[in-house]
Amino acid sequence: MSPAQPDFDPSVDIGRGLVLANPVGVASGTFGFGFEAEALAGIEHLGVIFSKGTTLLPREGNPPPRIAETTAGMLNSIGLQNPGVEHVATEYAPRWAGWPVPVLVNVAGANIDEYLRVVERLDGVKGVAGVELNISCPNIAHGLDFSTDPRAAARCAAAVRGVTRLPLVVKLSPNAADIAEIARAVEDAGADAVSAVNTYVGMKVSLRDRRPVLPGAGTGGLSGPAIKPLALAAVAKVRRAVRIPVFGIGGIASAADALEFMVAGADAVQVGTANFNNPKASSEVVEGCLAYAREHRLHRWSDLRWSGLESPG
Amino acid sequence: MSPVAPELAGSSDLGRALDLEAECLAVLPLESNLFQISFQAPELARRARPGEFAQIWVDQGRLPLLRRPFSLSRAEPDLGVIAFYVGAVGEGSRHLQRFRPGDRARILGPLGRGFTLPARRGRSILVSGGLGAAPLPLLADRLRERGEELIWLNGARTRAELYPDRLLPGGLAEVVRFSEDGTAGERGLVTAGLGPRLAGAQRVYACGPNPMLAATFRLLQELAPRAGRALPLEVSIEAPMGCGFGSCLGCVIPLRREPGAAGSELGLCCRQGPVVRAELLDWERLLQQPAHLE
């Protein structure tokens, strides 16, 4: 894909040497470790890939049912099924090293020590372009603690910052009382960028069975078009709170959705649930965004940004 | 917690899947809430193997949001036609039921691992329970092309839910119908037909509700000849599916690393199934989980 026009720069600078060819990535948990989409649709047009959440030890994940469909959305409670960081570092990273797209490993843990040990293992591994801290997985016990308390979030981010020079993105939970406060806290702690937002805690109930559809506490993470307006509001709020780049996430299924997030303050975006329906969804979003930039003679993506974001809201 | 098999043993080849827009040729209404829908999809008809499935995006809009998995029920490479046998049980399938000729749907497939066709010619038994008949016509067609002799035990709760005789593939050596309520064929469970027909058979294929499949497996174990092995059984199973190609990790099923292994691990129905060797399934665990997306 050629640049939209001679004076248009489609790239996005995240910092610490991480420059994305375009602002469209795929959200953690919706793309596995990239190999399925590689086989089905190709990954070469993407700006960045965020891997499935990776923990210190392998995790089998939650018992089924793990997903449920809701109006214009879906709930998931996968429970961080993953093969563990050792496998990711030794088996997956070497394959990523040959890809034209940077892969950031989404990292999850039950406590700060686990985050540190995962990131230490990934630091310096060829093929790992950065890490995204999942401080907000709603599907493991206490997973929300780091993401709803600004001091805990900052402690986690600062600790990780201390052990790696990799680009560090922190994925924010919309379930915090004040997402802007968390965003500021992790920016101060040294995060290079934030992703907003992770899934919203939701529940689907079966009237027939008179119980929630998902097991355990009955809740899961809500994603898909249903959360887009909520996510746009959260992104605007985060944009006003921090200076670092913001990845907008939440129900993006088309180029128009992605561009709307940039209007609301996102520097880049992540396509999530739409990947399940359409393995080419993210590549099509890239193409659509570039076509829009051409047509509207953008110079940079931030031309799209709503002027009302300049002042604190 | 059992260890996780990091790579999916024997997982399907995603490189064979296509995502194409296909035109509906016909919707054939059947009894109860059942129907057969056919599409013009030449390349998919060529690639489809028995037991594989496709993910259908019924309106490419947002309601329902996710594609739905359907077994490839028929594939006619010469005509370029594929067909699905569907029960209108949820939002996606009801939407498909309203399709008219000329309507288009996006279809991703073939996906998953299908049935194994026997190396040598012999007699195979097909066992279906209700909607579980869906993948068996394509299987029967391909087996018949290889000269296999086929017995089809066609079961359902009641007559209206039986796979209709007029859709049955040609050339079957024997078809026996079973209904639990006695409204058609023999009264009782379809598994009752197995015992008397096992002699001389080389293989059993089954698709239907998980309890029916579990009963089929148990029966074959019990009827195994003394000091002999039970007949090989392949079952096509269902699990609530999000994407159909291994990214969402929603459709987990409990699989054993080898027959007789003590524990099981969670594998993916969409990549290591939907057709699985029955002896590799942890039936006790499987029966505790739902089969459909809510």
Can you describe what's shown?
The complex is a heterodimer of chains A (313) and B (294). Chain A has 313 residues and is of the alpha/beta class. Chain A has one domain (12-63, 79-201, 222-309): TIM Barrel, CATH 3.20.20. Chain A contains ten helices and 16 strands. In chain A, strands 3-4-7-8-9-10-15-16 form an eight-stranded parallel barrel, surrounded by six helices. In chain A, strands 5-6-14-11 form a four-stranded antiparallel sheet, with no helix packed on it. Chain A is globular, with a radius of gyration of 18 Å. The mean pLDDT of chain A is 93. Chain B has a seven-stranded antiparallel sheet with strand order 4-3-7-1-2-6-5. In chain B, strands 11-10-9-8-12-13-16 form a seven-stranded mixed sheet, with helices on both faces. A two-stranded antiparallel ribbon of chain B has the order 14-15. The two termini of chain B are 26 Å apart. The longest helix of chain B has 13 residues, at 210-222. Chain B has 294 residues and is α/β, with parallel strands linked by helices. Chain B is built from six helices and 16 strands. Chain B is globular, with a radius of gyration of 18 Å. Chain B folds into two domains: 14-111, Elongation Factor Tu (Ef-tu), domain 3 (Beta Barrel); 123-286, Rossmann fold (3-Layer(aba) Sandwich). The chains are: A alpha/beta (313), B alpha/beta (294).
The oligomerization state is heterodimer
Q: Give the biggest sheet of chain A.
A: 8 strands, parallel, barrel
Taking the alpha carbons of the first and last residues of chain B, their distance comes to 26 Å
Q: Biggest interface in this structure?
A: A-B, 46 and 39 residues
Key features of this structure:
A: 313 residues, 8-stranded parallel barrel, 4-stranded antiparallel beta sheet, 16 strands, B: 294 residues, alpha/beta, Elongation Factor Tu (Ef-tu), domain 3, Rossmann fold, 7-stranded mixed beta sheet, 6 helices, disordered N terminus
